[in-house]
Write a structure and sequence with these properties.
Structural class: alpha+beta
Largest sheet: 2 strands, antiparallel
Distance between the termini: 38 Å
Number of helices: 8
Order of helices and strands: HHEEHHHEEHHH
Number of strands: 4
């Protein structure tokens, strides 16, 4: 039904300007597939309303998780996974997880290897540890919200560096 609504909006927008507000990242995601659609984020700071673009997208595809992060500051496990896999694709495709961590996060990006790996302390970076918490909560526990947010911020920085050179 939402897809039909988006198609209807796009059809009406051929003859009129349409302004729409939504809290739905899925609606925003569907609208972003059309290059003529402009998406802005409104944020209230004190008594001022600031308008910013959603152009800070880093993933090569439209991601509802990235939209949630940019629009609402929501760091999710799913977005962490997407960023991690994108970095691994560019910097360690074909490598095992631990070797990718050592080569990219620790050696190249100078991140500390102060997190456990399979029960052994100080083996991997926080990024890989959180990745393993997400994928193997039974053995590693649930990611801490503060660490998840920090890891997402750092991985976004690393991906920005890569996107500049691609």
């Amino acid at each position: 039904m939402q897809e039909n609504f988006v198609n209807l909006l796009l059809e009406f927008s051929k003859k009129a300007q349409i302004i729409l507000t939504s809290h739905s990242p899925l609606l925003v995601k569907q609208l972003l597939y059309n290059e003529k659609v402009k998406i802005n984020i409104l944020e209230k700071n004190n008594s001022n309303v600031e308008v910013s673009s959603i152009d800070e997208r880093l993933l090569p595809y439209v991601s509802a998780n990235e939209i949630n992060y940019l629009a609402f500051g929501l760091p999710t496990e799913e977005y962490h996974n997407e960023l991690y896999e994108e970095l691994k694709y560019y910097n360690g495709d074909g490598k095992k997880i631990k070797q990718f961590d050592i080569d990219f996060f620790v050696a190249e990006k100078k991140e500390e290897s102060n997190c456990p790996w399979k029960g052994y302390p100080n083996e991997v970076s926080i990024h890989t540890f959180i990745r393993n918490q997400i994928h193997h909560q039974k053995y590693n526990g649930k990611p801490d919200a503060k660490n998840l947010k920090h890891s997402i911020q750092k991985m976004r920085e690393f991906l920005k560096d890569i996107n500049v050179t691609i």
